[in-house]
Amino acid sequence: MTHIGILGAGRVGMNLADKLSAAGHRVTLGVRDLQGTAALPPGVAPRTDFADQATTARTADVVINATPGDSALDRLGALRAELSGKILIDVSNATHDDADGLPGDLCYPGSSLAEKLQAQLPDTHVVKTLNTMLFTVMTAPEILATPPTAYLSGDDQNAKEITAALLGDLGWQPAWIEDLGGITTARATEAMILVVPHLLRRHGFKPFAVSLAR
């Protein structure tokens, strides 16, 4: 059992918390407003604890960033001490939204949020993954007719192996996980987000993943 802290209690964070808790992990959701969790309907993340984000980052073994990518750099940078020595799995995309609220331009063209996080958090092992799909596929990859791909980017091999094991707990088969290499490879997968709004406008929020076909 791993103690996993998830920063962000939106659809992505809640979805991950439910599946990882069901897999036997201890999960803490880091939220900005602890009082707001009292208003959650019964049955929402029943096996999950709640804490402020600093406490979540400090006490967890592995931390998942499920907060909005466009503001994540400042948010996580403020947790540098709490994240020291930890694995930080970043599943977000840093984009400027178009008028319809869907992703438009990248916040860090020629780079990536993952690279920026690794530079700002030198004592943390950043791994980028799961940012190339609709959030429902993150925890149920088997729902797609075509086997999807979960890409891994990160400088620390042990951190990537631990992340891959957690992906297995989310339902990802080893053959569906593609290790791209160092953290700089995250700029490729983060750029994939630019195709997503066009898919959503044409087909709606149907499950999909930007995957590798062989």
Q: Per DSSP, what share of the residues sits in E-state strands of 2 or more residues?
A: 15-25%
Radius of gyration based on Cα positions = 16 Å
CATH class identity: Alpha Beta
Helix fraction, binned, reads: 25-40%
For this structure, what is the CATH homologous superfamily?
Answer: NAD(P)-binding Rossmann-like Domain
Q: How many DSSP E strands? A: 10
User: Uncertain runs with pLDDT below 50, 5 residues or more?
Assistant: none
Distance between the termini: 34 Å
Mean pLDDT: 92
| Number of helical segments with 4 or more residues | 9
Shape estimate: globular
The CATH architecture category equals 3-Layer(aba) Sandwich
User: Helix- and strand-based class?
Assistant: alpha/beta
Outline the structure in words.
It is a single chain. The longest helix is centred in the last third of the chain and has 13 residues, at 157-169. The strands form two sheets. The protein has an eight-stranded mixed sheet, sandwiched between helices. 42% of the residues are buried. It has helices spanning 11-22, 53-59, 72-77, 80-83, 113-120, 135-138, 157-169, 186-191, 196-203; strands at residues 3-7, 26-31, 48-52, 62-65, 87-90, 95-97, 103-106, 125-128, 150-154, 177-181. The model has no long low-confidence stretch (mean pLDDT 92). It has one domain (3-203): Rossmann fold, CATH 3.40.50. By secondary structure, the protein is an alpha/beta fold. The protein is globular, with a radius of gyration of 16 Å.
